[in-house]
Amino acid sequence: MKLDDSLGFILNNAGRRVGQLLSIRFESYGITREQWIVLNRLAERDAITQKTLARRVEKDQTNVTRIVDQLERKGLVERRPNVEDRRSFLVCITDEGRAVNDKLIPIEAEVIANVLENISEEKITEFREVLRQITKNANTHIKEMER
Prior knowledge:
The protein is mainly alpha-helical. The chain folds into 2 domains: 3-115, Arc Repressor Mutant, subunit A; 119-147. It contains 6 helices and 3 strands; from the N terminus they run ααβααββαα. The chain has a 3-stranded antiparallel sheet with strand order 1-3-2. A hairpin with a 7-residue loop joins strand 2 and strand 3. The protein starts with 6 loop residues before the first helix and ends with a helix. InterPro entries: HTH_MarR-typ (IPR000835), Tscrpt_reg_MarR-type_CS (IPR023187), WH-like_DNA-bd_sf (IPR036388), WH_DNA-bd_sf (IPR036390).
């Protein structure tokens, strides 16, 4: 099989290109795609530990710590003491962080609309279902291999 026909290669390439497009569009706001993912998850629900945040964004804790550090320096998030566990902090989105997130949401939606041009709603719905099933299958095999 040629690499260009490999589903793994095609998925990875498509994801990278969409990521590049988002990064270009977010650049004028001084925020990366990775930072926006963390910011957006915090906008959905904040005052959570970095460990919980890492699970919610599906990244390792070290990367999330680095991203939170960057967002904190920009004034978009803040760490607060965790009264239930003094060894950890709760990550909270600031008002400025919410404002930036609110500006970026329609940009992300526009980028996604652009890359889905000329694809029917039925195909998009089916594509989401297929991607979710691929993710579920991959997770199952990862767990089996970690045993």
